Amino acid sequence: MFGSWGKSTGVCWLTAVAAVAVTRAGATASEFRFDRDTFAFQNATVLKYHDGIAFFRPKSEADDPANKYTRRCFVMTRTVIQFRKFARFARAQVFQDNIGSGFVTYFRPSNIRMVFLQSPGYQQKTHANLDAALSRGDVFVAYLSTYPKMSINHSVLIYGRKKSHPGDEIERYFVYDPNHAEAPRELTWSPSERAFAYQKDIDFIGGFVRVYQTYDKPLQ
Question: Is the pLDDT of residue 173 over 70?
Answer without folding.
Answer: yes
